[in-house]
Structures are given as structure tokens and as C-alpha cells.
Input
Amino acid sequence: MSTFKWLKPALFTLLLLSCGKPLPTLDDVDLQAWKNDKLGCLGKRDGMFNPLEKQKEKLLGLSEQDVIALLGKPDENELYKRNQKFYYYFLQPAKTCGDADSENPKKLVVRFNATGLAKEVGIE
Output
């Protein structure tokens, strides 16, 4: 009986590791170029607007860590009441970019609920 003491912890660990789901793939979105285009200053994210608009529902239900793993760190974030968070990713150059054309650049907005899951995804 003592030879199987390791079996329970090993099975428990295996069960925990198998619970995660893989990150979604975003078709026609170059995620490396996305991550390298901080604040949209290089203009590469603007070309990904249409594919992202069509696939934004793939981000729903992802955790904050999953969204960061997929899209990189947000350009801006906001803590709202009741522990809700908003992540903002600029699709057009932000005001802080030297050659920003727009007063209100388009941005991807991901709203997380208090449990840290993406509840709403939109483009403003």
C-alpha cells in the first residue's frame, strides 16, 4: 500500500493541469505585430480592425492572464467599481503618439467582471 502514496498527488496534479483550455486563434490577426505596436503608434493594428471586429466574441470568457498572453499587456487599464476592470488596446494611434490624427482613436475594450473573466468585448 505504501508504494502507491505518490499516485493520489500525481493524479490530482494531472487533473488540475488538464482543466485549462487552449487560447483561441484570431484569424488574419498577426499577434506578434499587434504586441509590437504599442498604443497603435506604428499603424499596424489599424489594419487588423475588420478581422478583430468579426472575432471579438472569441475573447469572451477568457481570464485576464489569457487575454494578456494572447494580446499582450494592455495600453491602458481602468479599475472600476465592484472590482471590474477594463483593458484598452488602441487600434489607431493614441494621442501620446507624435503623429496621432484622431482626437478619439478607436480602441478595443475588454471588460472583466469581479472574477477576472472577460464579460464584454467591444470597439469604441
The CA atoms of residues 62 and 101 lie 32 Å apart.
